Model the fold of this input.
Amino acid sequence: MTTEKDKPQKIPAILAAMGKVIKEIGAISKDQTNTFQHYNYRGIDDLCNRLHPLFAEHGIIVLPRTVSHSYDRQEGRKQPDHAIIEIAFDFMSSIDGSRETSGPFIGEGFDNGDKAFNKAQSAAMKVCLLQTFVIPTEGELLDSENGSEPNTTEKKPKKSKPPQGKPPASKTDQIDEFVNGGAKLTPKQAEDEREALILAAVSKSNKLEFYYKRDQIIALIKAATLSAKLPDPLATKADFTKARDLVMMTLDEMNTNRKDKK
Done:
């Protein structure tokens, strides 16, 4: 006689859907670069862009639920505002209404404007998605054909031949170039460095009570770099460091001249 315990239990649709997402998501590599602390990472946009079509296909709805939060506002904007938020994420199935809760997760954010909470929320959601769906950074977890570990012996990367003429840089030269900031930056890295330079100069001008606008600061940076005969556009970390020193020195000199005239 078959009892209720002997009957196979029906799996909630949300768990079945989340299992399919884990199977289909694949790896998300660390393609973003933090140019200040020199590490690669996966941003929240990378995760959402990959997961959104899978969630839509399998009927998964994400409902964030704030558990607690705190906000430390800094007067005068000398230090960034500091936000901490604790969020639980409810994953719900659009098929049968079943839900599964992940978390809570804690996110932390700093910002000189009004984005500290936005950054904290993004940080909490990023950790939730990474841990809930166990997203790898490279390669496949299992061989898709037979469910075994991937064969790493068949395909070996071909060794690239060094270009003819100029000999390849030694390991010591490469390390020295990186430490001294001589390596050419990628377009994304250069844009990040440029933005950081502009923000630093704006902050400096505000402290000296010049209150220059962004376009005025950009013109000042242009004039300073041209006078020092730096490359245009700036191409290396060392170039940006020199430009930063020049701009800060120029602002200090302008402030001294202004005081002398009073």
Confidence is low (pLDDT under 50) at residues 139-156, 174-180.
